[in-house]
Batch of 2 targets.
Target 1
Amino acid sequence: MIYKDLLPMNMDGNAPTKEFLRRVADVCIEYVQHTFDRNSKILDFHQPEQLKDVLDLEIPHKPLNLDQLLVDCKDALKYQVKTGHPRFMNQLSCGLEVVSLAGEWLTAAANTNMFTYEIAPVFILMENVTMAHMRKIIGYKYGDSILAPGGSISNLYAALAARHKMFPQYKERGLFALPGELCLFTSMHSHYSMKGAAAAMGLGTNNCIEVPVDARGRMIPAELDRLIQESKAKGKVPFFVCATAGTTVFGAFDPLNEVADICQKHKLWFHVDAAWGGGVLLSKNLRHKMAGVERSDSVTWNPHKLMGVLLQCSTIHFKEDGLLISCNQMCADYLFQQDKPYDVNYDTGDKVIQCGRHNDIFKLWLLWRSKGDEGFEKHMDYLWEMTEYLVQKLKSQSDKFEMVLEEPECTNVSFWYIPHRLRTMKQGPERHKLLGEVQPLLKGRMMTAGTLMIGYQPEDEYPNFFRNIISSQAVNKDDIDFMIEELDRLGYDL
Ligand code: ABU
């Protein structure tokens, strides 16, 4: 059997089509079961050259038969890292929410484009309702939102809208509409996408001004105020401030109310990058971390992180309605005809700089329906409970682990593993330097063993340390106990 035996090439192909899709679904279901099986490895690591040798990746001239395609499907998953495995703590997006997966399957079957109501009526309405729900949670009374391909692009949309609001002529006249060099402000620990936005928008990375942070990684408001005044004195034109709610490495929450005061004082756009931390808004116990978010002009919030929605699912929300369309609209006649037989305000495609837009709403909507607001509140509180358990465990074994931050604000837990030979060495920069050399070696051992995955990086004056992320509902206390023992088993002699 080959592709021609399936629908639509073979209009009598209902049975083989069903059989083929069932068998692919079985491959996927088996993978899901292995993902949650703690006896199965997270990965079977191969160097790229080795992997090329064991896989047949070439595109053939002649059709391959369907049995071979099923082998290809199995092989693709055989060497894939199981990012939903309870001991995968490597990225901000960990886990595999089964309901969201079902949503993604349905999305693929529907295979539509989110630019017009004309071809995605149900999904457009779902997006409308879900985005309004998220804006309400943020604290915006009205406004507008869109799902974007990732947090970086969401942040870019915020900066574009801010510039459009301050200089509406920019869209037509470009740089000639500006009275001087625009600059934006973001903390030293914020996501690199703000620098990327400054580059992409023609501001230049020098005009992405990095504000110093305190010992916990939070923006220092007095420094923000000072830097704004300094850039004005140099003749620059500040227009945008990004506060981060959940920094990538430390998980720090910038003090939003204080940043809002400064933005108000200087009449600047106030954006909150809550791509990582936005989930705290769903919990009564945690939302105080983002007190003041309702004063912002825009918020990035990625449900594919703390909320566990399947990748990718990123949202950007605006307090003011109408800005997105006014900023980005190009009025392509072939797509966004104004005389369609329905309310064309439901055509979302002209609000964005991309044309085609993937359907990222259904897997979010379906998961939210399954849990309700109440379920998501429990979800968030559980992640914090597991994080607290991990922190206490690490602190209780201070001969083997040294915390980088004593009290993490989010589910990022930063620490050094201390191998046996360094346990008696006195504290100080030399010891940290050696610890910084050990962590990548330990990461290599983890990947070879395939039993655990935790990311590492340097930050500020701190050499390489581990950043453990708990953003999956699958993680339990036994996994945390396992992780601590496994780090010591793999790293003791380093
Ligand atoms: N902004 C993407 C974050 C990647 C990560 O640290 O997992």
Target 2
Amino acid sequence: MSMKIAVNTGGGDAPGLNAVIRAVVLAAINEGWEVYGIRDGFGGLLKDSEYNGDGVVRLTANSVTGITHTGGTILGTSNRGNPMKWPQEQPDGSIIEIDRSDEIMQEFEKRGLDCLISIGGDGSLTIARRLRDRGLPVIGIPKTIDNDLASTTTTFGFLTAVETATDAIDKLHTTAASHKRTFVVEVMGRHSGWIALFAGVAGTADVILIPEIPFTIDKVFQKVRHRYEVGREFAVVVVAEGAKEIGGEASFVEEAKPGQEARYGGLAKKLAKRIEAECEVETRSLVLGHLQRGGQPNSYDRLLALRFGSAAVELVKRGDFGSMVSLDPPDVIAVPLGQALAKRKNVPVDGDVVRTARALGISFGD
Ligand code: F6P
């Protein structure tokens, strides 16, 4: 049966998105189907977007040539464009969130699109699931550098981000040692500390702070002081942006507003100030930020992305809608979207990587 399938990328970008798009397009063409890319999440379908409702492009083999190794997404993405929480200004100047899923459903109908392959994190996949509830055949492909999506062993982009962070920690080590300084490095991870943990252990940090293990600042001071006392006169502290003190709040640079989630950040700077004042050692902070989302996907992430893309087309072929592709080594399987979104995948606090870190003397500030 000939099909017209749509594909979009939503939420923050992650290395490997282009490889997924390429696999979806080539595998679908292989079936004799047509593929259409929606620009900027769902923005390409909305009348008042910059595309004026015409942000849907036919994707051919030529459109996806040479993109497997490139970062970003050729379709564009947005983490401000949830059509079910669309910010709309009211006559009194206030802004409320409205649901525009009717428009999305109508656009699919009007264009004769048979189904949607949606590549996204929990936000985008929640949208996809709601569209599924409204009758749109959807398949989800999990994406996040944070690696916090349940029901998949890992997501593409995560290990590339870990490599970027590890490389930065390695570089900070040598300058920290030369200047007898302490560095506090902030990595992404609002709700879970996967990047901080993996990069921190691989980069041999002295302290790793993650949201799953609330910390006590005195324990951090203790570890830093100890480093200097025993003659290893520098320290590297790796923090996930969402880490918090016991009984405390995470650090934000911008509050949540209609259509936009709160933005985390600022923890490294605050900690560096406190460490410098308390431990009397010169301390600098660094935020890796979006460097972790950019650049070429490593070979593991490319391969995973290509596998996810072609598996999603398999699911369309089987009519297994409402499901998400998932890595369950050694296989890529299908899980119901509802199950995948039911909970977050946090770092297991007594898992083997945390235990390895502790055995190596790394402090979690607890
Ligand atoms: O991709 C998820 C994430 O990396 C979070 O860890 C981070 O807080 C967020 O994206 C930042 O996204 P943006 O600056 O694009 O809103």
